[in-house]
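Lab notebook page, bench 4
Experiment: in silico fold of construct C2
Operator: M.H.
Input chain length: 242 residues
Purpose: comparison with the prior construct
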Amino acid sequence: MNTNAVSADLPIEFSEVNIDTGGLTILRQISLVIDAGAPTVFIGPNGSGKTTLLRAAMGLIAPSSGRMTWGGYTQSSPLRRAIVFQRPVMLRRSAFGNLHFALGSAGVTRSERQRRANELLSLVDLEGLGGRPARRLSGGEQQRLAIARALAREPRVLFLDEPTASLDPAATRAIEELIRSVSASGVKVVMATHDLGEARRLAGDIVLLHRGTIVERGVVDQFFNSPATEETRRFLAGELLL
């Protein structure tokens, strides 16, 4: 996977972005810059806006007001961005078949798809399972296959929404190791998680959201060891943010 070139999608900049849907404001006055480097991790209570922020950064949701840019452009085709949702849908075909479909959609020639599919299965530690129906894989295996499908596009930015939700510790560890590997290859990972331990283990910087606003952002050590706001201190202590 060639990820050494600087991504035309970065930085992703939000400037006073509001996102409204169904008469409700989901995100309000979001100003944020996402740039290359270690993973950026969104945390916050359920309903805080993490998933909506991921979708907006991917380009799936347009701002109701404010401005968003990718690499300085307000219009940017998401050809080198990919997203994996919390409950990815597996196609009714084998693991190989899922990857072949993704590679074809990414414009990979038919003659190259077998080789690339094997590479991707190896990357996500699913060698030997290519012929298995994707829907019969375990939850952790399906999540790794979903990440492999996303990587078929050779993205420069990979968005992950709660990638270890409902997984057991062994499957969680495998996903976290994969995320570290993807990040080390030069892909910018932007993810949401409900797990503070996971955020501490993976993040370069943390963004805490509550009620659709950014409460605090900081590099991981500073965020956890010297939080700047009372809301952050309460959240890290396990208190409910109302």
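Observations: The first strand starts at residue 12 and ends at 21. Strands lie at 12-21, 24-34, 40-43, 65-70, 81-84, 157-161, 188-192, 205-210, 213-219.
Next step: discuss at group meeting.
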